[in-house]
Write a structure and sequence with these properties.
The chain has 98 residues and is mainly β. The chain has 1 helix and 7 strands, in the order E-E-H-E-E-E-E-E. It has one domain: Ubiquitin-like (UB roll) (Roll), CATH 3.10.20.440. Strands 1, 2, 3, 4, 5, 6 and 7 form a 7-stranded mixed β-sheet that branches. Strand 3 and strand 4 form a beta hairpin. The protein is globular, with a radius of gyration of 13 Å. The structure holds FE2/S2 (inorganic) cluster (FES).
Length: 98
């Protein structure tokens, strides 16, 4: 459903979403990478396990929460992707990383 509009020509790099290699480019937020990567969701809700996808892309809706490099409930729309980042879609209840 989502794809990058234009290739900036910048060298791409790999991040890992749920253990799978995924291509990201400089300037991508983690949420943008999640949206481009099937099934395009960031988490499942804790109670009903409903899939949620990044929505506002500006830190308001909290639908983009995911685990990034071991830190849980990160607002991925506010975090720029970096090479080698390990991202996990959250499923159900998670412990908050202190
Ligand atoms: S997409 Fe809404 S807070 Fe990140």
């Amino acid at each position: 459903m989502f794809r990058q509009l234009a290739d900036s020509g910048s060298p791409s790099f790999l991040v890992y979403i749920d253990g799978s290699e995924t291509v990201a480019r400089p300037g991508d937020t983690v949420a943008a990478v999640l949206l481009r990567t099937a099934p395009g969701i960031a988490r499942h809700t804790p109670v009903g396990e409903t899939p949620r996808a990044p929505y506002c892309m500006m830190g308001v809706c909290f639908d983009c929460l995911a685990t990034v490099d071991g830190e849980t409930s990160v607002q991925t729309c506010l975090v720029e992707a970096r090479p080698g980042m390990r991202i996990q879609r959250q499923k159900g209840k998670v412990r908050i990383t202190p």
